[in-house]
Amino acid sequence: MSVHINTKKENIAKTVIMPGDPLRVKYIAEKYLTNVSLVNKTRLCLAYTGLYKDRLVTVMASGMGMPSMAIYSYELFNEFDVDKIIRVGSCGSYYEEIRPRDIILVEKAFTLSNFAYQYDKENVNIIEGSSNLNKKIIDTAFKKKLDIRIGNINTSDLFYNKYENPKIRENFCLGVEMETFALFYIAKKSSKEASSILTVSDNLVTKEELTSEEREKTFDEAITLALDSIL
Ligand code: HPA
After folding, report:
1. How far, in Å, CA of 157 to CA of 166, rounded?
2. Where are the alpha helices (H) located in 91-196, listed in sequence order?
3. Buried b (16+ CB within 10 A) or exposed e, 181-212
4. Which of 72, 106, 133, 158 has the CB geometry, 3.0–4.6 Å to 196, for a possible disulfide?
5. 112/229 Cα distance (integer angstroms)
6. pLDDT of residue 135
7. Residue 168 has pLDDT above 80, yes or no
8. pTM greater than 0.85 (yes/no)
C-alpha cells in the first residue's frame, strides 16, 4: 500500500512492464498473462499481476508525463521493492528515415526540464538506462530477428510546443516522448534498473502516423520484446 497504489506489497511482482496508457495495460494483461488479477485501480492507473510463461510480472500504467511517471516509479521501487521497470511507450521521430513502427531502445534520455534539480539539487539533464537490462533486450531482439534502433530520446514536458531548442539535436535525440528521463533518474536514485522501449507512432518531419491497426500490431512487437527480455 502506498499513497497512489492501493494494494499489498506481495501483489506487485519484482519486475514491472509500464505502458503510459491504462487500456494498453488491460490489453497486455488479457492477451499475454495467465493467472492474472487486477491489483490496483486507484485513479484508474490499472495494474495487473500474472504469469508470462511462468514468470511473475506486473503490468502497470505510468500515466502521461514525468510527474506521473515519477510518482508511480518512485512508489514501485521504494515502497513495493520492485527491482526493474521496463517502459513500453510511444514517441515521435525527429528524422525522416525513422519511420512509424520503428522500435527505439533508449540509450540515454535527455531533458530540458529541471527535474533532477528539483529532486536532489542535481544539474543532470541526460541519463542512461540500465546497461544490464538493455543488453538483455538487445540479445532478445537479436534472437527474435527484430530490428531495433538504439539511441537517445528527448523527454519533453510538452506535447504541444512551437520552439525546438538546439540542445535537443546537440544531444543526438532520435525522437521525443514524455516519461523516460523521470523513470531512469528515479531508478538511478533508488539503485534499481530501468529500460525504455519506444515504438515510433508519428514522424514529426513527414507527419506520417500509424493507423490504429498498425499501432496495435507494432505495439505487440515492443511488448513481447519487453516480456521475453525478463524471462
Ligand atoms: N511528442 C511527445 N510525446 C510523444 C509524441 C510527440 O510527438 N509522440 C508520441 N509521444
Report:
1. 16
2. 115-120, 131-143, 167-170, 180-189
3. bbbbbbbbebebbbbbbbbbbbbbeeeeebee
4. 106
5. 30
6. 98
7. yes
8. yes
Region 181-191 average pLDDT: 98
Q: How confident is the model at residue 216 (pLDDT cuts 50, 70, 90)?
A: confident
Separation of CA 154 and ligand 1 centre (Å): 10
Going from the Cα of 63 to the center of ligand 1, the distance in angstroms, rounded, reads 14
Strand 149-155 and strand 103-110: the pairing is parallel
Residue among 102, 173, 178, 208 to mutate when testing ligand 1 (max atoms within 8 A of CB)? 178
Neighbours of 64 (CB within 10 A): 15
End-to-end CA distance of the chain: 27
Question: What does the mean pLDDT of the chain come to?
Answer: 97
Considering only CA atoms, which residue is closest to atom 7 of ligand 1?
92
The catalytic residues are: 202
Query: Residue 217 pLDDT more than 80?
Result: no
